[in-house]
Amino acid sequence: MVSKKSTSVFGLLAMNKFSYEQGELLAEAFNRWHVEYLFIGKSGAIFYGFPETTQDADIFPAKNPANGQKLISALRELGYNLTPEIEQDLIAGKDFVQLRGGLFDLDLVFAPDGIETFAEAQSRSLLIDGKFPVASLDDIIASKRAANRQKDRESLPRLEAFRDYLRSRNLIALPTNPSKS
Amino acid sequence: MNSEFNQRQEWEREFDAAARRSLRERMRFSFIYTYKPVLDDETYRSFDTMEEYREWCRKNLPAYLGYWR
Q1: Tens of pLDDT, residues A50-75
Q2: Architecture per CATH, A17-175
Q3: pTM, two decimal places
């Protein structure tokens, strides 16, 4: 495990709450650098309309050196302070990388539990609101079930009920802007 | 059985309410920030494997954060 101490985490609390606008910034930077990625985890489910709270954005990047290099460029553009050590980890595609203290908190999960390959997950993913690539709800659920942490076990029944709710209404996600629909 | 049904109905009312909001609003309500001890005390961590990450969570994080298996 590699880690780096925070010097001013509390001073950064106000700025690292993920928002729609920050999601747009991330999507624009990642698109500019052609990063292959998906939103995953509870943050991914929130894009589908799942009414639940979470604290950070979980990103599932494709695990290969070229994508790692693109990711570094995009994260630098977003203002993350990447040391040579972090860059090395991103290029190597370590299974789990946690970044705090940047524009917003990011968990980079290169090998999420319960998902075989990025390509398979990407083939089942959806582009929400025309800009946010999100792993399928089935993959998000499969990943949480495989991770099997206490917090996953607690959220799974409600998440599965949400997937069933969408299906019962022939929806793949809740409308992204109901006021205009 | 009845309480399960009631729970499901309550969730569906919440999903209906969420459907009346825009994605921008839903995200504003959904992403919150609460300081998480240990987890938020470092700006960077990386793990070679998910197993190594899970083991680190088990050894270092308080149980109430919910990261234990």
Answers
A1: 999 998 899 999 999 999 999 999 99
A2: 2-Layer Sandwich (3.30)
A3: 0.91
